[in-house]
Amino acid sequence: MTFDASQTAWDEKTQQFHGGQDWATLSNFVEDFSVTTNGLGTPRTALEAGRKAVDLCDHYPPANQEPAKSSLAAFLWPDSYQRNVNRLLLGNGASELIDLVVRKAPAGPWKPGPFSVQYKEYERSASTNGRPLLKVNDDSPAAIACIVNPCNPTGDYKPLNQLKKWVEANVQDGGFAVIDESMQPWHSPGFREDSMTSQTEFVADLYARRGISVYVIHSWTKLWSCTGIRLGSIVCPTEEHCQALKKIQVPWSVNCVALAFLHAVVKDEAYLHDTWTLTPRWRHHTVAALQEYFPNWLTSGEPFLSWVWIDTGDMIVAERAIQLAKQAGVPVRSGLPGYQQPSHLRIAVRSPEKFQILLNAWLPLRN
Ligand SMILES: Cc1ncc(COP(=O)(O)O)c(C=O)c1O
After folding, report:
1. What is the reported pTM?
2. The predicted structure's pLDDT at residue 289
3. Which residues' Cβ are closer than 6 Å to ligand 1?
């Protein structure tokens, strides 16, 4: 008996749908536009480090996640990593940490960020853990509020001052605020100053004043295009909060390949420099071409982001766009499963050459 590749990979009755699964089933696969990974591809030196680590797979990975964890701390806080490293925990993708923190939060309702839709794993975890789910427009503060900033898929972004106000207004005293900054490092070389990870005083003050615990989650599988190796981190408000998460974390959840990859990749400054230079350029090209070819489609998202959220205005058009992209070997993410936005699509930012393949596939959609 062989596996039938035409089936969808997700058990949609049981699991939360995500993009990134079609590529393996397409015999003419060219490029995956359905995920928000970095269009530059996986950094070479880190990939090599990961490959070498496979040779050591007859040993357990270090239980303290070192030296990779300290390397990531030095990346996040170049001037004060020793003070902060014990507030950091690595995970098997951000997904593992999302589930840990949602499980650890005090009992009570969950609420999403203020954007029309957001990445669904927070809600999935809250729901499977039996929490009441508040709607986006519900004014009441929650026991745990989770905001994806920048927001995947809409591309909205709240600068720090607004983010802080949102946290103050939407979390109950004693509750948890979880801020997902997976896409925030794309911001610019100055991303750290605009990140909640730099706001140690605000975080400490909020905890002292109202008992609110602020966590910052990163999925590193997008920035460094390594979704297959699973790599994420969480910055906790205090060392004690971090230990509480570690206590319920499965040991060795981050494998030796992911740790070696991380230890190497944070030193690859050239890759980040290229990311900050090329992503906005490629994104601008993508948006300009879409506006020229499909003037009725609305594109949204900050100019620095690695994807474009598109509203075609018509669910039939969106469905056809998804089919055409798939047939051409360049799958895109439908807005329907999970996000329930049937006229929307999300496409990754890729080089103009690769984007041209997608654009050609969509020519039959022009009026
Ligand atoms: C905003 C956001 N957070 C978290 C994740 C989960 O990432 P990981 O692959 O690290 O589990 C994703 C993946 O798409 C994401 O977009």
Report:
1. 0.96
2. 98
3. 36, 93-95, 119, 148, 152, 180, 182, 219, 221, 227, 232
